[in-house]
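Annex B.
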Amino acid sequence: MSLALQTPPTGAVARVLGAAYRRLAETCEPLAVRVDDPDAGMGQLGVTARDMTSDQNVLDAFVAAEARRIQDRYGVAPRRHVAASRALHDYTWSIGLLMSGAWYLERRVPRIRPEDVRLDLDAGAYGIAPGDDVRCLPGDPLAASPGTVTVPHEEALRAELRTAVADHMRPVLDAVGPAVRRGPRALWGMVADDLVSGIWYLGRTLGREEHAVQAATELLPAPVPPYPAGAAFRYLTDAGGGRCPTRTRAGCCLYYTIRPDEACLTCPRTSDAERVRRSGPE
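Iron-sulfur protein: predicted structure tokens.
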């Protein structure tokens, strides 16, 4: 016997997504995201990511704010393309994790638009206005909500996540790419890396690293346009016989230019011996 789904009350999707984003922010310490109350509307702090894609002054402020943070944190004055790369990496990882985290934890894929994201340039934080555009599986309590689209199976939901992240990032890359001084393949390589890295980090934080590695591998089993690389995890063995997952990034966030002796664990410049020693995602 099948049961008809009752239509959830107006605003239910935004409230559920807001709760998911808050859970992610509480779980993942590096995720500096403030979630707006869906009933109160979007906050007034800062400019939106959409502004960054259409206003050169906002883009310049976005890059300059990151340059100041690097100077304050590391005592290094970065070149503009380095600051732009670091700012883009942080943005891509953070916004990608909001979408991939909701998918990983709740089997839902929110469609986040650049206009839904506020930039707090001084704090290096983001604000997110939960929307009502979400993809889910049949039987989900939100399936009957306005704005919800159901897809038939898990692979279709994974495809929706790949598309949602790509659709969000495309105008951002078009805007920030010239400042980063990288071509499309390198830029989309960063997006693929940060999408995989976010899921990996979340799983590790929850004590579910192996599960997260498998989930990220199923999401990007190989290059899937526009992503030029798959998750491509491999396992290393330490001196005690323990195994740890690792991968090599397809792109580069240029952190090594700030701290030459402290390259990211998954940087192509890092040896497998160093990966074994440190054994964990960046």
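The chain has one domain: 13-224. The chain has a mean pLDDT of 89. Further annotation is deferred to the next reporting cycle.
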